[in-house]
Design brief:
The protein is of the alpha/beta class and 225 residues long. The chain has a single domain (11-222), classed as Rossmann fold (3-Layer(aba) Sandwich), CATH 3.40.50.150. The protein is built from seven helices and nine strands; from the N terminus they run H-E-E-H-E-H-E-H-E-H-E-H-E-H-E-E. It has helices at residues 11-18, 67-80, 98-105, 118-130, 143-149, 169-179, 196-201; strands at 41-43, 53-55, 88-91, 110-115, 136-140, 155-160, 180-190, 204-212, 215-222. A seven-stranded mixed beta sheet has the order 5-4-3-6-7-9-8, sandwiched between helices. Helix 1 packs across helix 6 (169-179).
């Protein structure tokens, strides 16, 4: 929250400033700053592929969203989007695909996963094929470059879990807003909280937030203005 008396920046200025991120610093591997190594595997928590394991590659900084956090987040989504059959999802920093496959398992109409690491792309593709997940698309590429090619208003929910040390989350939220349909949602993970004022400056309402260890997670809803 800004100090008392300081005016909020206009939303357009915030988005422009966020868009100046240096792309060379971007890595799509999810990086949670918790101590210890990434788990060897996570599992899909609910839906038609419940309990399906997802192997976690031994890569520096790759830490998928934990099972219990995903369970909490999808409980939130169940209240906001009780019918997922028409929901179009985007997992922009896919990593292991835990978020995207969770959404697909629970009946989303379509899920696009974007990942730049070739090894992770191969793993995502292999799991998609093993699950016969026809409504899942895996796309190799830089997150922001892909965003530039996608039409606006395409998605109902965008998952954003970039590496914390890359400093790209605010830029990703600002860019994701253009991809969302009316009342679309963004799920964002970070190592610091996103407050209601910051969310508002980016064109969102902060709907829910939580904390698991050092990880903060948030559900934001696109405002109508």
């Amino acid at each position: 929250m800004p100090p008392p008396g300081r005016r909020h920046k206009p939303r357009d200025d915030v988005a422009k400033q966020a868009g100046r991120t240096v792309r060379a610093s971007l890595s799509t591997r999810r990086g949670h700053p918790a101590a210890g190594h990434a788990p060897g595997r996570v599992r899909i928590v609910g839906g038609s592929w419940k309990r399906t394991p997802i192997e976690v590659a031994d890569l520096a900084g790759l830490r998928p969203t934990p099972d219990r956090v995903r369970e909490t987040v999808f409980n939130w989504l169940a209240h906001l989007r009780p019918d997922l059959a028409t929901v179009r999802g985007l997992d922009l920093f896919a990593g292991t695909g835990a978020l995207g496959f969770e959404l697909a398992s629970r009946g989303a109409g379509s899920v696009l996963m974007v990942e730049r690491d070739a090894g992770l792309v191969a793993r995502l593709t292999a799991l998609k094929q093993r699950l016969a997940a026809e409504h899942v698309q895996v796309l190799a590429g830089d997150a922001f470059s892909v965003v530039d090619r996608l039409p606006g208003g395409t998605f109902d929910i965008v998952f954003l879990d970039p590496p914390f040390d890359a400093g790209v989350l605010v830029a990703a939220i600002a860019r994701a807003r253009t991809l969302l349909a009316a009342d679309g949602l963004v799920y964002a993970e970070s190592d610091s909280p996103i407050g209601a004022d910051q969310a508002r400056n980016l064109g969102f309402e902060l709907v829910r937030s939580g904390k698991a260890g050092r990880v903060r997670f948030h559900l934001l809803r696109k405002d109508g203005s």
